Amino acid sequence: MTLVAPTPAELADIAASLHMTLPPHEVQDYHALVTGFLADYQAIDAQPDEVPELRYPRAPGYRPDGAESCGNAWYWKATIEGAPTGKLLGKTIAIKDNINVAQLPMMNGSATLEGFVPGFDATVVTRVLDAGATILGKATCEHFCLSGGSHTSDPAPVHNPRRAGYSAGGSSSGSAALVAAGEVDMALGTDQGGSVRIPSAFCGVVGMKPTHGLVPYTGLMPIEATVDHCGPITRTVGDNALLLEVLAGPDGMDPRQRGAPTQDYTAALDGGARGLRIGLVEEGFALPNMMPAVADKVRAAARRFEQLGATVESLSVPEHQLATALWTPIGCEGLLAQMMIGNGGGHNSIGLQDVALIDHHARWREQADALSPSLKLCMMVGAYGQRVHAGRYHAKAQNIRLRVKRSYERLFASYDLLLMPTLPIVASRLPNADAPVPEIVARALEMIGNTAAYDVTGNPALSLPCGTVDGLPVGLMLVAGDHREAIIYQAAAAYERAVDWEKL
Fold first, then answer.
1. What would the pLDDT profile of 407-454 be if each residue is shown by its tens digit?
2. Which of 69, 153, 171, 372 is catalytic?
3. Are both 236 and 287 inside the same structural domain?
4. Beta-carbon contacts of residue 285 (< 8 Å; ≥ 6 apart)
5. Distances from the Cα of 97 to the Cαs of 104, 141, 435, in angstroms?
6. Do residues 246 and 369 share a domain?
């Protein structure tokens, strides 16, 4: 890239954009000073970038269509063979399309990013290949991951494999759909407001949002660093625990990670439910759009845990609703700053950055009208918070997050797990392409009332299928204290062994 110094007129415009008024002689003075500073930029420009080595060869692959796309769940198909040994040997896996897979296109559900090809593998991609998995391709995701439905991905919606014409959930829509359809054994998803757990619940598979920072986010396109999570989606609890064992732990390149202690999650699978203390969060059943039949299925699952020897108590957790409210200023102002204005990069933090992604994604400004309605809405809310209130609500929400987090820490001194519906509804019908904006947004955000809270608190949370309503899956959510994924897997495996959820 050629570095071009600003002209004096351009520098005057820059100063004006920073609310400065410079007299002409000062413009000349600052122009000379700025030009001197840019020598350091030129020195950096002359250096090669620092990117991880590509260790596993791959063919370029292709974009499938028709029946091969599995209801638009596949974005790109390409086979990458992993190591000849490892925990995941023989397992096939799909990678959500906001995760770097070198030499394969990454669109992140948006036509504005079309044509971008990452130059290095995300840490999680390298880890699954090191563990012997075979990657079969990239799974479609929603438009910059800003939808809990599956109707915002470009160029077409993802269909629920259990019922065409219905939502697969989002934003990891293709990941959950491919697992549910049997196209792959496992998939990687990401979760900032429920995007692993929502499609897992809609499609009837198992999805874990781990503790914030447990799984490295290096090489993934961010939304907002304080709510970014990456996690496994699988058909069984055992495979989910196995995949998390491979994904978890620090990589030394992601500032979200603070120690990130790992566990032998599969060792917990046979622990049973006897003696577990489970709190039934009544606020999780009281959402305005809660379907009574969904609540009934989840309460029946709670009774099954009692039959398995757990103690289940109803309790009120007012912080649950507050945590959900905190998501709006944190998520909206954060995504505007990091994903959009920051072009998918991060300032004021140490970590590996994807410079090529920043270069390509910066072009969204030339195509802003093509952004999805749900993303436009969140950007406008974030811009309002910044322009009118100077970011004070984002800052105050982060402060209140600390208080809410302490409240949950006290709660988990008395309970091993919290239980509630993952979602208040089952999969809804996909809206028409020409549906009005309020309908498109409603179908994108109507289901996050329980999931978003635990992106804010960072607690691990898993969606587990527990029955059906009108033939569509219902998910229950188990939540635990930080870095207690093992006890979630222990309880989930006990329930999975005891029931055939598709007959409930």
1. 999 999 999 999 999 999 999 999 999 999 999 999 999 999 999 999
2. 171
3. yes
4. 295, 298, 299, 420, 421
5. 10, 6, 25
6. yes
164 lies in the same domain as 16: no
- Asked whether residue 25 falls in the same domain as residue 74, the answer is no
What's the number of domains the chain is made of?
2
181 lies in some domain: yes
Looking only at the bridges linking them, the beta strands covering 134-139 and 92-96 are parallel
Residue 169 domain-assigned (yes or no): yes
Mean pLDDT of 384-405: 98
Residue matched to tokens 């992604």? 357
Question: Does the annotation mark 171 as catalytic?
Answer: yes
Catalytic residue of the set 147, 172, 173, 195 = 195
Of the candidates 96, 138, 209, 297, the residue annotated as catalytic is 96
CA-based nearest residue to 105, from 115, 95, 120, 90: 115
In a domain, 53, yes or no: no
Tell me the DSSP string of 147-165: -SSSS-SSSSPPEETTEEE
Q: Is residue 47 part of a domain?
A: no
- 96 is annotated as an active-site residue: yes
- Its pTM stands at 0.97
**What is the span of the domain harbouring residue 281?**
66-503
Alpha-helical runs (H) found in 342-484: 355-361, 373-387, 392-411, 437-445, 452-457
Residue 88's CATH number: 3.90.1300.10
* Helical H segments across 132-291, by residue range: 173-180, 197-203, 237-247
Q: What is the pLDDT of residue 2?
A: 75
Q: What is the pLDDT of residue 346?
A: 87
* Torsion-angle region of 413 (φ positive above 0: left; ψ -120 to 50: alpha; else: beta): alpha
Q: Is 147 a catalytic residue?
A: no
Tell whether the model's pLDDT for residue 3 goes beyond 90: no
Do 249 and 110 lie in a common domain? yes
